[in-house]
Write a structure and sequence with these properties.
The strands form two sheets. Strands 1, 2, 3, 4, 5, 6, 7, 8 and 9 form a nine-stranded mixed β-sheet that branches. With 359 residues, this protein is α/β, with parallel strands linked by helices. It starts with a helix and ends in a 5-residue tail after the last strand. The longest helix has 29 residues. The protein contains eleven helices and 13 strands. Keywords: Germination, Lipoprotein, Membrane, Palmitate, Signal.
């Protein structure tokens, strides 16, 4: 028994060396957001935002941006340390931003640096910014105490309703995977606000196109089921109504994948009319007309989106991966060669279950 206790004590003694040393929060600078801006073919400007706590109750923190320009993000971080009174700690990093010009050149090397850091979580948000990430991070916004918190909440609620879900885990999964391509939120600073303006389409790690916010909602319908979001539809001349998505579901049907492939995408949307000025939605005979109008508009736009993806040779929906999962002996090279010309048809079915408060 004594021998057994000695073994346990000795084992615990050895394990104490395996735990990382504790860091006192007051002794470090917690980086909550980073932004990368293009400078030249070889240099990138790294902007790290830290929130500096203030003394006193209910006193919001002050955000400070540290900047350095160099060839690698690791070296830039070292240069930033040279002007900081405390060492940086990125274990609380919540979002990484990439300037649109930089995204057109490719962002994998910068993402790879983050994914190799064991202190970072896999739910780190990523986004592409029109213009300077430094300018965006330095701005004080009345809607939130720090830019990083503003960005975090902005992306979180938009990914639930308007744009496809994406974080560093999703990006890397689609980057390394075959038959699929990444997408990222597209942001723009507008005065003292930050706006989600759409979705960036990437081929591997390079931005090759974008979709506006309204089309991002439809892209989300083609990729994943969800239960939020609003879409505006033209009914008749000078008459518009909006549908609030209560539940959506998407299914895919592949035909003759090995020889002459074709794809049918079926999207089912159950929603309610949330706004319809000049339209008597309380009239039951109009509900079917509203459903047909919504289907016509959504069918037209979703099929245009698919054609745009094919023209850019990006598989944002992940159809190649879906076809591979359903086909024995699937040939990725043949699929990639055929992808731009594959007949892909989207069929949207809309069911209006409620007509708002009037019903």
């Amino acid at each position: 028994m004594v021998k057994k206790h000695l073994i346990i004590v000795f084992t615990l003694f050895l394990l104490t060396g395996c735990f990382p040393s504790k860091k006192i929060l007051e002794d470090v600078q917690l980086v909550s957001a980073v932004g990368y801006d293009y400078k030249s073919n070889n240099q990138v400007e790294l902007n790290g935002m830290v929130a500096i706590p203030q003394r006193g109750e209910d006193v919001p923190p002050i955000s400070q941006v540290f900047t350095a320009t160099t060839n690698t993000s690791k070296m830039a971080r070292a240069l930033e340390q040279a002007e900081s009174p405390k060492p940086f700690e990125i274990g609380r990093l919540e979002i990484a931003l990439y300037n649109d010009r930089l995204a057109e050149k490719g962002i994998y090397d910068l993402v790879d640096t983050l994914q190799r850091d064991p202190s970072l979580g896999r739910d780190l948000y990523m986004a592409i910014v029109y213009g300077s990430t430094k300018t965006l991070l330095k701005q004080q916004y009345p809607l939130s105490e720090t830019p990083s918190k503003y960005l975090l909440h902005l992306l979180d609620q938009n990914m639930n309703a308007n744009i496809p879900k994406s974080n560093i885990h999703d990006f890397l999964y689609r980057y390394y995977g075959k038959g699929m391509d990444p997408n990222l939120p597209l942001l723009e600073k507008q005065g003292d606000r930050i706006r989600v303006v759409g979705t960036a389409l990437l081929k591997d790690d390079k931005m090759v196109g974008q979709l506006k916010l309204e089309d991002s909602f439809l892209l989300k319908l083609l990729i994943e089921p969800f239960e939020k979001g609003i879409y505006e539809v033209k009914f008749k001349k000078d008459q518009f109504f909006t549908i609030q998505n209560l539940k959506s579901k998407v299914e895919y049907e592949f035909k003759d994948v090995k020889r002459s492939p074709s794809v049918d995408i079926f999207v089912n949307v159950r929603g309610r009319v949330s706004e319809a000025p000049k339209i008597p939605v309380s009239d039951p005979s109009l509900v079917e007309q509203l459903e047909r109008a919504a289907e016509k508009a959504m069918n037209k736009r979703t099929n245009m989106i698919v054609k745009k993806l094919q023209k850019a040779k990006v598989d944002t929906i992940g159809l190649g991966d879906l076809a591979r999962s359903r086909t024995r002996g699937f040939d990725f090279k043949q699929w990639d060669d055929q992808y731009p010309d594959i007949p892909i048809n989207v069929k949207v079915n809309v069911e209006i279950t409620q007509a708002g408060i009037t019903e």
